[in-house]
Recover the amino acids of this structure.
């Protein structure tokens, strides 16, 4: 490669806003060990034509402990205690808890933030979706197309804060065609979290289904 080609290639890399945004996000995520957030979620199923909206709070202790507590539908909870993932959704499946070993459960499909920002250049084809604004924050939209056929999703769109690299919103289409849109309404990096936040005890009388 001659000097001119090298200079042109370097200029293209510098000008690539998607690459710049994803690198900023990876750097920011690598410094996070714990986090606390609130979120709003919309799940759309094109096969049934249904749309489900929910909201709640999220806590995480990397690498493998997290909890989603839903305020809407109230009482729904998803917990990873580091060994098992517990899925308790009384709003749609009252009377049962699903328990799955962490290794067997696609934990990444629950912790999509970790999926997005763990070795993204090697795992995804990255392209630019343009600039936007969310809640007054300038963001860059980055499109991710998984290279692996068994990825947790078939495509994703992430809205990355242009200043600090934090994730403001994401949309992911699962293998089933279900589309999940999540807007992060508040976020605290390296927040103080209690160890018992990730403990789950099935309610009395609830059947535990192991998968």
């Amino acid at each position: 490669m001659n000097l001119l080609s090298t200079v042109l290639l370097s200029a293209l890399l510098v000008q690539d806003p998607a690459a710049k945004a994803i690198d900023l996000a990876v750097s920011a995520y690598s410094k996070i060990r714990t986090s606390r957030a609130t979120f709003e979620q919309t799940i759309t199923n094109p096969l049934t034509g249904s749309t489900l909206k929910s909201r709640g709070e999220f806590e995480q202790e990397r690498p493998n402990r997290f909890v989603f507590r839903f305020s809407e539908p109230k009482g729904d909870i998803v917990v990873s205690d580091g060994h098992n993932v517990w899925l308790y959704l009384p709003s749609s499946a009252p009377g049962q808890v699903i328990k799955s070993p962490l290794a067997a459960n696609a934990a990444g499909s629950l912790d999509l933030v970790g999926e997005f920002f763990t070795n993204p250049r090697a795992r995804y084809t990255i392209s630019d979706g343009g600039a936007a604004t969310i809640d007054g924050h300038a963001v860059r939209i980055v499109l991710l197309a998984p290279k692996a056929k068994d990825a947790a999703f078939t495509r994703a769109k992430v809205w990355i804060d242009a200043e600090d690299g934090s994730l403001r919103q994401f949309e992911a289409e699962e293998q089933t065609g279900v589309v999940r849109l999540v807007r992060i309404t508040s976020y605290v990096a390296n927040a103080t979290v209690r160890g018992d936040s990730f403990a789950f005890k099935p309610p009395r009388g609830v059947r535990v289904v192991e998968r």
